[in-house]
Amino acid sequence: MNRLKNKFSKEPILIISGILAFISCFFVFPDKKYIDYINFRTLVLLFCLMAVTAGLKKAGAFDYVSHQLISSASHARRAVTLLTIFSFLLSMFVTNDVALVTMVPLTLIVLNSVSESTIIISLVEETIAANLGSMLTPFGNPQNLFLSSTYDISFVDFIKLTALYTILSFIIIMLQMFLIKNEPLRSLDKESSLSDIINIDLKSIIIYSVLFIIAILSILRILNYWILLCIILLFFTVYDFKLLKEVNYSLLLSFLFFFILIGNLGRIDAIYEILKKMIEGREVITSILCSQVMSNVPCAILLSGFTDKGKELIIGTNLGGLGTLIASMASVITFQLYIKKKGAHPLRYIAVFTILNLVDLAILLALFFIIR
Questions:
Q1: For residues 365, 367, 371 and 372, what is the CA-based torsion angle, rounded to 10 degrees?
Q2: Rounded to whole angstroms, how far apart are CA atoms 164 and 99?
Q3: Which of 45, 117, 159, 183 has a CA that sits 20 to 30 A from residue 51's CA?
Q4: At residue 93, does pLDDT exceed 50?
Q5: Dihedral of CA 30/36/40/43: which sign?
Q6: Which residues contact residue 145 at a Cβ distance below 8 angstroms, ignoring those fewer than 6 apart?
């Protein structure tokens, strides 16, 4: 029983999606049409990107760059500003989840001598930066990859759609840096602690960078995604097979379960018509509200089965990553890492997180109503 509780707390989306998919199979019995539910392109590209970014992380690429950025910072505001900017930019290329898994532990080391309120605001802003920075590109987060693939939105069109929101997001985040107290850092402790986690493998960084470029070619539809999968599997089999353990298979399996669920719901006429009418003309608002209770990735998959307005879903699910702690599962990563810290204040963190997220969401939603 305890093992089941631990599993549920770590992978709630996987378990819920699996249960719902299983139940839906009683209403639409498995047949040949099930195979048409699955967006193999999304699954393959997501797997390949996660594998390659795991390689880059292991090689020390992200830690090295972030270390170089803040090595000369003597005060909290400057250090956090640099780390936040890097999180914002990094998430555009390696997803918001990877950006936060990389940056949050480093941030906690850098800020080990400042007040708890400064640490909390810094982590919240870093999380917001990762979620909003990832909005820019079709590979910045899982929902973007899925929606751009499902609705066949080109790279250029995707950037045109999200660029203005991303620019405003960056301005908001930079202004909020003034919320951080300009406390001094203990540079000696910072340097010695950071040096312990920096381990650079230049050869691997070059190799994984090449693989990342190949993956981008596939996202741009220049290279067939099945060919990309063969390249990735062959490479990791020969070079570092153990690294494939770092891939988030729970996320891939959750996608698969949601594909089955949405496919089955789409074949139940009464449910399909009800959901379609509920969403029609309200795609962005529906996406934002839906994300608050079930996270933006499953929300994107769910709503895509009932509307052809892919661009609206992209805006809605990306803005919907702001708000509650579970609106984006990347935000949960930061929270889980923070509460492991000695002297953590979970309730204070959630309060600050919610307030700042709702403020930013309101500003960006106002932009949507102005330009739509």
A1: 0
A2: 22
A3: 159
A4: yes
A5: negative
A6: 42, 45, 46, 49, 138, 139, 219
